[in-house]
């Protein structure tokens, strides 16, 4: 079957070239190959712009997932949200992981000046949730799911607590600029 198709096509080509020659057409004009030009020019400015945008997004995403973010939140939970009697004694241990403004705010809160021997609290970071922060920013919010155990008057309560951490990128590391519980 294939041989007969090839033979038929060959015969058609021979007959058509014979017919063109017989009709007075110049075969050279018809057999001249048509050369197509391909545009291989590149819009360098467009590619450089896209590359720059990609680098910015990658850099910001890399910065967001920097280990200092998790370490700051973990230190805050272990050193400030875990205490016996009063958090006042622990506040100095978190000075390096919070912004100066937030540190001053924590010191000024009157609720942390009271000492209660019947109160203990232990908080540990369980999971962190990030939003889509692909656009460059030195400030983001992170949701932290924490496990918290409270002992008050010999009664133990354990549960999940969700905090929203307002994080600030300062001096090449993430620090806590504020916190709210949900």
Structure, described:
With 182 residues, this protein is α+β, with helices and mostly antiparallel strands. It has a domain of 127 residues: Nuclear Transport Factor 2, Chain: A (Roll). The chain has a 5-stranded antiparallel β-sheet with strand order 1-2-3-4-5. Strand 4 and strand 5 form a beta hairpin. The longest helix is centred in the N-terminal third of the chain and has 21 residues. The N and C termini lie far apart (78 Å). The model has no long low-confidence stretch (mean pLDDT 79).
CATH T-level fold name of the domain at 55-181: Nuclear Transport Factor 2, Chain: A
CATH architecture of the domain at 55-181: Roll
The fraction of residues assigned to DSSP E strands is 25-35%
Cα-atom radius of gyration: 36 Å
Separation of termini? 78 Å
* H/E element order: HHHHEHEEEE
Mean pLDDT: 79
Structural class: alpha+beta
Helix content: 25-40%
What's the layout of helices and strands?
Layout: H1 2-22, H2 27-31, H3 44-64, H4 67-79, E1 83-84, H5 100-108, E2 119-130, E3 139-152, E4 155-170, E5 173-181
Antiparallel strand pairs: 1-2, 2-3, 3-4, 4-5
Quick overview:
This protein has 182 residues and is of the alpha+beta class. It has helices spanning 2-22, 27-31, 44-64, 67-79, 100-108; strands spanning 83-84, 119-130, 139-152, 155-170, 173-181.
Descriptors for this entry?
alpha+beta, 5 strands, elongated, 182 residues, 5-stranded antiparallel sheet, Nuclear Transport Factor 2, Chain: A
């Amino acid at each position: 079957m294939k041989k007969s198709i090839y033979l038929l096509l060959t015969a058609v080509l021979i007959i058509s070239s014979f017919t063109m020659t017989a009709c007075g057409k110049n075969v050279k004009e018809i057999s001249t190959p048509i050369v197509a030009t391909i545009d291989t020019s590149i819009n360098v400015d467009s590619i450089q712009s896209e590359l720059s945008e990609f680098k910015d997004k990658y850099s910001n995403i890399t910065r967001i997932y920097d280990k200092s973010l998790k370490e700051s939140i973990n230190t805050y939970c272990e050193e400030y949200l875990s205490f016996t009697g009063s958090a006042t004694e622990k506040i100095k241990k978190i000075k390096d992981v919070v912004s100066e403004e937030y540190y001053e705010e924590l010191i000024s809160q009157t609720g942390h000046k009271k000492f209660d021997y019947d109160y203990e609290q232990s908080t540990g970071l369980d999971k962190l949730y990030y939003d889509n922060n692909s656009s460059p920013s030195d400030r983001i919010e992170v949701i932290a799911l924490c496990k918290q155990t409270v002992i008050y008057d010999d009664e133990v309560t354990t549960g999940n607590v969700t905090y929203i951490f307002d994080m600030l990128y300062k001096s090449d590391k993430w620090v806590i600029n504020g916190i709210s519980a949900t």
